[in-house]
Amino acid sequence: MAIIINILLLLAVISILTFVHELGHFLAAKAVKAKVIEFSIGFGPKLISRKGKETEFSLRALPFGGYVKILGDGDPTQEKENRKDKGNLKNKSKWAQMFVMLAGVTMNILLATTLYTIYLGNNGWKMIVSNTYEDFKPVGAVISKERYSDIPYELATEEGAFTAGMYEKGYIVNVNGVVIDNHLQLPKELEKFKNQSVDIYACNESEVCESFNVKVSEEGKIGVYTGSNYDVYIDYSNNKIFSGLSHSINVVKITGRALSELLSQAKETGDYSELSNTFSGPIGIYFIIDYFKTLGVITFLGILADLSLSLAVINLLPIPALDGGRFFILFIESIFKKDLNERVESLIINISFGLLILFIVIVMIKDIVNIEQLKSLFE
Q1: Whole-prediction pTM value?
Q2: Partner residues linked to 171 by β-bridges
């Protein structure tokens, strides 16, 4: 039953993202008075179909995407006879055509922005991030920290703390009466007392506390591993109205930074497996839904926002089969004031579409091969 629910949720998520994206193209086409022949959710055989004034609205059997068929935006060999039609998109200005191409992406960004605003509003206008992003410079927000405990530690070597009889695991409260706010402050404080003894007040996991006289080494160490004791947040408290838009920008910035770090690491080690695992398809989304569905509606909306923003960014890539590539072709044509040969354009788009489908298939095969690893990420 759980699997069926997950599949239905997956299809619902894909359908929502597709509908919003294609609605953007549809509304933009109507705005520039281009004729929309069909608005379809899904591919393959029609399940439900209804004819409007000029547009056929349909629900098809394979709910993995959708499309809006606009007159003039297709195979030139099939639509040459319609070139004189005023509703042909090719008869509109380049700016109108570019507007239509980017409308789907714009709608996905608007959806992400709206959902992020709802999510942040229900989470005190803060979003927790990894401690490695302490130095991150967010747009329309600030980085804040919240301390949740004393410094967690664990004995590492048989020196200093071990010799002094400190607990095997516990929390360091202060050094010579100086309260240690975070794990980064501890080594700085110990540096002051190389080859000297210090009084460390610590507590064990049962909250039994006492003071220990600990010898500090020549390197300023006492032989313990320490962990973080605070959370890092992107705080939008002073920018609530535009928080969703700001967070969309910050998510793209953080993702770009993370991918850049993984790429650098892969180049150094020659191991690209971790980088490849950042790309996933419907199978990966299935496990994301399975994990987050139990965390409540608001969290689920946050995940939907992430997916909508990801769809927007991917569609902006300058690949001819995607909106970004189509926009790029139109932009170049507007600069040189000359249209690319329609057959050549159609060939480029079809080849890139085939390569894109091949890439998706490869990603899905990778997900199937690494399915146990995918599962472990969400356990």
Answers
A1: 0.84
A2: 152, 203
pLDDT-based confidence at 113, cuts 50/70/90? very high
Classify 149-228 by CATH class. Answer: mainly beta
* DSSP state, residue 132: G
Write out the two tokens for 244: 């969703």
In terms of DSSP H, where are the helices of the chain? 2-31, 76-79, 94-121, 185-191, 243-269, 273-276, 282-292, 297-315, 323-336, 342-369, 371-377
Which of 193, 189, 159, 194 lies closest to 172, judged by CA? 189
Long-range contacts of 49-52 (CB under 8 A, 24+ apart): none
pLDDT tens readout for residues 301-348? 999 999 999 999 999 999 988 999 999 999 999 998 888 887 888 888
Q: Which H, E and C letters describe 6-18, residue by residue?
A: HHHHHHHHHHHHH
- Give residue-wise pLDDT tens across range 174-197: 999 999 988 889 999 999 999 999
DSSP 162: T
Q: Is 2 helix (H, G, I), strand (E, B) or coil?
A: helix
The C-alpha R_g of the chain, in whole angstroms, comes to: 28
Give start and end residues of each alpha helix (H) in 150-280. Answer: 185-191, 243-269, 273-276
Angstrom distance (rounded) from CA 172 to CA 205: 11
The residue ranges of every structural domain in the chain are: 2-123+278-377, 149-228
CA-to-CA separations, 354 to 46, 320, 342, in angstroms, rounded? 23, 11, 18
